[in-house]
Write a structure and sequence with these properties.
The chain has a domain of 145 residues: Cytochrome Bc1 Complex, Chain D, domain 2 (Orthogonal Bundle). It is built from ten helices and twelve strands. A five-stranded mixed β-sheet has the order 3-2-1-5-8, with no helix packed on it. A three-stranded mixed β-sheet has the order 4-10-9. A hairpin with a 2-residue loop joins strand 1 and strand 2. Bound molecules: copper (II) ion.
């Protein structure tokens, strides 16, 4: 095969692959599509990005067209070198002023939108968002905001941030270890979450629904497994969610598998994981001390694990496929009700959670050297391998399934 033929074939392959990627990119049901805004902040960005894209696209096409013309028209065909000239003031000044004008034209609305996005005086509800390797914690301070009813006691959850649809929610974000970035493409742009700083970000969803996102700043080995969702509920639904999060602890019935699970949990898990209302045998409330165990100083609060439907950085589903689809693809008028059902026994997809309890660092890479699953700086990075027996795991699953 001649080199010319080879080039032609490669070029065709590249063209085909590019066209394929473009068509795939235009698929209409991508949950993290920035071009399908589902809230007022994302709408501001979209309204700016589209005209800017058209202007930039037009400039790009013109520049490429002129380059193509020059390359073809004046290519080397053995002709003598043309006479050299220098200086065309009108053209030079014109080609300086024109791009400057275009840039000013783009800058004015851009600065306006940046200022609008940073506006937080109009927020009605506060959630503290903290990133750590490799999951997000959401804690709701007690407040009058978030609905007429407010939030009477603090709530701590992880993976899925629940908000009332239609309200402007103020996210106060930070990190406990490295820089992460909070990004729910359908609701707003990215905001870096930096240790030692608090960064604000406003969230609003027009309609009830679930909106997927992911950490958007490389943050170590399992960066790709650091996902999150925003679940927006109706006002009544949000009130129900709040009441349920604050409901009193219901211990498992005596002499059940779940009751054995509670004991196993106390013995193996409660040093890191808080379950509000859980007590030791003497009736003293158990308070987790993840700061003594884990490098970031935190581990997810498991009080209501089964009210969220993903776990470990929202990477794995707690719902079986058909149940997950029923929630994720629900229309906005039925979404709230389906979401609030949480993980029922019929819908519980236990395989991933079982594997997680069997060996968490195997499921979600946490150390670059897999042989060294021990502590980093004498503290664990993420959840360690706990050498649980299959019986213990059965008990724990039965116990956790009741946490909602
Ligand atoms: Cu991250």
């Amino acid at each position: 095969m001649t080199s010319k033929n080879l080039l032609g074939r490669r070029a065709r392959l590249v063209a085909l692959a590019t066209a394929g990627a473009v068509v795939a990119g235009c698929a209409n049901n991508a949950p993290q599509d920035t071009f399908q805004p589902k809230g007022s902040n994302a709408q501001l960005i979209d309204d700016l990005a589209r005209p800017v894209f058209y202007i930039a696209g037009l400039v790009g096409v013109i520049v490429m067209g002129v380059i193509g013309f020059v390359v073809l028209r004046y290519r080397d065909r053995g002709q003598p070198i043309p006479e050299q000239t220098h200086g065309r003031p009108a053209l030079e000044i014109g080609l300086t002023i024109l791009p400057a004008l275009i840039l000013i034209g783009v800058a004015i609305p851009s600065v306006g939108v940046i200022m609008d996005l940073n506006e937080t005086d109009d927020t009605e509800c506060v959630v503290n968002v903290t990133g750590q390797q490799w999951w997000w914690e959401f804690d709701y301070p007690a407040q009058d905001g978030c609905l007429p009813g407010g939030i009477p006691e603090p709530i701590v959850t992880s993976g899925q941030m629940v908000i009332p649809a239609g309200q402007n929610v103020l996210i106060r974000g930070t990190s406990r270890d490295v820089i992460h970035s909070f990004w729910i493409p359908a609701l707003n742009g990215k905001r870096d979450m930096v240790p030692g700083r608090v960064q604000n970000l406003r969230m609003q969803a027009y309609e009830p629904g679930i909106y997927a996102g992911q950490c958007a700043e490389f943050c170590g080995l399992s960066h790709a497994n650091m996902r999150m969702e925003v679940a927006a509920l109706t006002d009544d639904g949000f009130q129900e969610w709040v009441d349920n999060q604050l409901a009193e602890y219901t211990p498992p019935e005596a002499d059940t598998l779940a009751a054995e699970g509670e004991a196993t949990f106390v013995a193996n898990c409660s040093r890191c994981h808080q379950i509000d209302g859980l007590e030791d045998e003497e009736g003293t409330p158990l308070v987790a001390r993840p700061d003594e165990q884990v490098y970031s100083g935190a581990a997810p609060n498991l009080t209501n694990l089964m009210t969220r439907n993903t776990f470990a950085g929202a990477t794995w589903s707690l719902l079986r496929d058909e149940c997950r689809d029923a929630v994720w693809e629900a229309d906005s008028d039925v979404f709230t009700e389906r979401y609030l059902e949480g993980v029922t026994e019929d819908c519980f997809a236990e395989v991933d959670l079982r594997e997680w309890l069997r060996d968490a660092p195997k499921k979600k890479p946490m150390y670059t050297d897999p042989e060294e699953l021990g502590p980093t700086d004498e503290l664990y990075r993420g959840m360690p391998y706990l050498a649980l027996s299959e019986d213990q795991i059965d008990q724990l699953l039965a116990y956790l399934l009741e946490r909602k």
